[in-house]
Design a protein that fits this description.
Strand order of the largest sheet: 3-2-1-4-5-10-9-8-6-7
Number of helices: 5
Number of domains: 2
CATH architecture of the largest domain: 2-Layer Sandwich
Largest sheet: 10 strands, mixed
Strand content: 25-35%
Number of strands: 10
CATH class of the largest domain: Alpha Beta
CATH topology of the largest domain: Nucleotidyltransferase, domain 5
Order of helices and strands: HHEEEHEHEEEEEEH
Shape: globular
Radius of gyration: 20 Å
């Protein structure tokens, strides 16, 4: 049994090391068809996620939400000390997806705390994408109606089951990028979500 497992591992390593294999090139037609099907209403809902695979490695992936499923469009392996990807890698992956989206289709992106860097928010605004990206509670923001930098988790008291629209803020103190902020505490979860978003701002314009 051990010998069989070792043989399978060697064959898999040879397959992955084969320079003639072009996963992205071969998968691209499938990704294009998935996007076409999911954007039939001229809206495309995307999710970016990172899954830690062992110590120091992460699978960074962009999927499309379609008919209750999350279908992969593009992915890459990331080697990082803490298992997190850099914003540069995130933008590079999303730029590939941007090139697959047909003209006239409006894209939106959601993601966890790892994907809330101001550089990414700015790039999404440049592309005209909507976004709602989770932020850590210890990040600092400056609401437009105040002159102080405040922790997100200290902005206001919030009860489970409630949502609060904070509005325009600068996020974070180290980057000071203008965006909007929503606090949402879903019942059954231990703490609220702090979401940077441009959805309301775009509707107002």
């Amino acid at each position: 049994m051990r010998a069989k497992k070792a043989s399978l591992e060697k064959r898999l390593r040879r397959l992955l090391n084969n320079g003639a294999i072009r996963p992205r090139q071969w998968y691209r037609p499938i990704a294009v068809r998935l996007i076409a099907a999911a954007s039939s209403a001229r809206r495309l809902h995307l999710i970016i996620d990172g899954t830690r695979i062992g110590f120091g490695f992460q699978l960074l992936i962009v999927v499309v939400a379609y008919q209750g499923r999350a279908l992969p469009l593009v992915w890459t392996w990331v080697r990082h000390r803490r298992g997190h990807s850099t914003t540069v890698k995130q933008i590079k992956l999303l730029r590939y997806v941007q090139g697959l989206i047909p003209p006239g289709v409006k894209a939106s992106l959601v993601g966890d705390c790892e994907f809330g860097n101001a550089l990414l928010l700015e790039q999404l605004d440049v592309w005209g994408w909507d976004y709602a990206l989770r932020q850590p509670g210890d990040h600092l923001c400056k609401p437009y109606n105040t002159g102080r930098w405040l922790r997100l988790d200290a902005l206001l008291p919030l009860q489970p089951g409630l949502t609060a629209w904070i509005g325009r803020v600068l996020l974070t103190k180290s980057n000071a990028y203008p965006t909007c902020l929503v606090l949402h505490w879903r019942k059954g979860e231990p703490q609220p979500w702090f979401l940077a978003t441009n959805l309301r701002a775009r509707r107002r314009r």
